[in-house]
Write a structure and sequence with these properties.
globular, mainly alpha, 80% helix, single chain, disordered C terminus, 22 helices
Length: 498
């Protein structure tokens, strides 16, 4: 059996890195929202949108190759694989930069923002610097050294925060100053990534790997198309909002239509650890029951953390948005509330198993199919209802359906029933307990406090909610602290040794 304690600690480090990434990015958004007007901020967010959209194309699915192949080869060969993929990423990054500069006017025309062209031209060197940094998480997850992932992520995001925000504060509220700082931060991050990618291979001699380039691309190319499908789904919403409703609405939509970031941290950290584990288990032809047990535990632990958090933020979505972005962005709270519904289905982590089993073609086909549905469906929603809110609702419904279909496929590949690996009854209990707790807290606290847009008040409400969950958990046969036990034991052991 797999040692779940070790896996939990590995996931903890990845999650810690993701938490630092989110914290620093949200601080950046909070500051820039206050220094830029909506036109400047909307243009800046459009640059980020264009970069993230094209990033999927030029990364070519290569970052996920690390988690799939490194656990199957020796460290000596792993070093050679890492060098090869990093060099390919640098080359594709160079092409990305060249095309971004050349197509900047066309992109600005498509998004109906002439100001965007200049920003993209100045931004264009960044992909060449950042693409070679991709894959750090997969490398450390493969060798169970995810504590370095946490350090690298925190350092790189801190650099981004400092160099993007400080020029704006010092020199003025022009989004180009943020772009200048981003270029400097990207160069330093590249040097940082080169150093960190070498840590697992310290004092290891390079051995030419038997893994051929055609094998790498036969695995990564379907992932490229899958990633294209995934980003196409997300970019459809942003494209239609930008084109039909203007830069100001795009800014409101960008700040609001997001899943709860901590959910992404949890699923990303668990998925990052599970992927190399599943890959090794499949390669070693381990019993599928081991995979099912590991997956079930991961799913329930995710739900126990995610469901209570999502319900809290749904009930206090307006207050959270006002605290983060001021009352100028209160319209973003509606998008935020709609997007949060999707988080109830994000516990379905089907990708690690599908990819470990080599089901990259199915993964690619389903994402491309839903991308087509997204672009056609969004257009029809705009024409029929003329509402960005309607578009947001359609987007969430579509992604929920995608998760259920992919999960069904995963259960069939493993050879078990849908409900064996997706415990609906247990998840309903977690949801019911969370709902009752938040209703009690909201009712009692509202008798005393009327304004929840104060950060201290919101923090107090959250603490009351968590305490009530923990105190009443035994009546629902739930254990909200179970995921902390391996971490506490680990650090207590270290203290005794020292």
């Amino acid at each position: 059996m797999i040692k779940t304690e070790s896996n939990t600690i590995q996931a903890f480090w990845v999650g810690l890195g993701a938490l630092s990434s989110f914290s620093l990015s949200i601080i950046s958004a909070i500051i820039l929202s206050r220094y830029f007007d909506k036109i400047e901020y909307g243009t800046y967010r459009q640059i980020v949108y264009v970069y993230n959209t094209l990033l999927v194309v030029f990364s070519a699915g290569l970052p996920r190759v690390f988690s799939y192949y490194l656990p199957r080869y020796s460290k000596e060969e792993g070093k050679d694989i890492t060098i090869k993929i990093s060099l390919i990423l640098f080359f594709t990054g160079f092409l990305f930069s060249l095309i971004l500069y050349s197509a900047s006017d066309l992109i600005a025309t498509l998004l109906h923002n002439p100001q965007l062209a200049l920003g993209l031209k100045y931004f264009s060197p960044i992909p060449m610097l950042l693409l070679p940094t991709l894959g750090v998480e997969g490398i450390f997850a493969s060798y169970k050294q995810t504590k370095y992932t946490a350090v690298y992520t925190a350092l790189s995001r801190l650099l981004m925060l400092i160099f993007i925000v400080l020029p704006v504060i010092i020199f003025g509220s022009n989004y180009l100053f943020a772009v200048y700082g981003w270029i400097v931060a990207s160069f330093i991050t590249l040097l940082l990534a080169i150093y960190f990618k070498g840590i697992p291979f310290k004092n290891v001699k390079v051995k030419k790997t038997s893994l051929k380039m055609n094998e790498i691309f036969s695995y990564s190319i379907p992932l490229l198309f899958a990633s294209l499908g995934g980003i196409a789904m997300k970019s459809a919403d942003q494209f239609y909002i930008s084109r039909y409703f203007g830069t100001e609405v795009f800014a409101e939509f960008s700040n609001g239509f997001m899943e709860l970031p901590i959910v992404g941290m949890i699923t990303f950290s668990i998925g990052s650890v599970l992927m190399p584990l599943f890959s090794k288990m499949v390669f070693d032809e381990r019993n599928k029951d081991d995979i099912i047990i590991l997956w079930q535990k991961a799913l329930m632990k995710s739900a126990i953390i995610i469901y209570p958090l999502v319900l809290f933020f749904i009930f206090y979505s307006t207050e959270v948005i006002v605290i983060l972005y001021t009352t100028d962005y209160i319209a973003s709270s509606m998008y935020f509330k709609i997007a949060l519904v999707l988080n109830f289905f994000n516990v379905i982590m089907f990708a690690p198993i599908l990819l470990s089993l080599g089901e990259t073609k199915f993964y690619s086909r389903i994402l491309i199919s839903f991308a087509i549905i997204a672009w056609i469906g969004d257009f029809l929603v705009i024409k029929l209802f003329g509402s960005p809110v309607g578009l947001a609702i359609f987007s969430v419904a579509k992604l929920i359906l995608l998760a259920l279909i992919a999960f069904g496929k995963t259960s069939r590949v493993i050879g078990v029933s849908f409900f064996k690996v997706f415990p609906v009854n247990k998840l309903f209990i977690v949801l019911l307990h969370s709902l009752l707790s938040i209703l009690i807290v909201k009712y009692l606290v509202n008798l005393i406090v009327k304004d929840g847009t104060n950060l201290v008040v919101l923090g107090f409400l959250f603490i009351c909610y968590i305490l009530l969950l923990i105190l009443t958990s035994k009546y629902f046969r739930l254990d909200y602290l179970q995921f902390l036990e391996p971490i506490i034991k680990k650090f207590n052991f270290k203290r005794r040794v020292n």
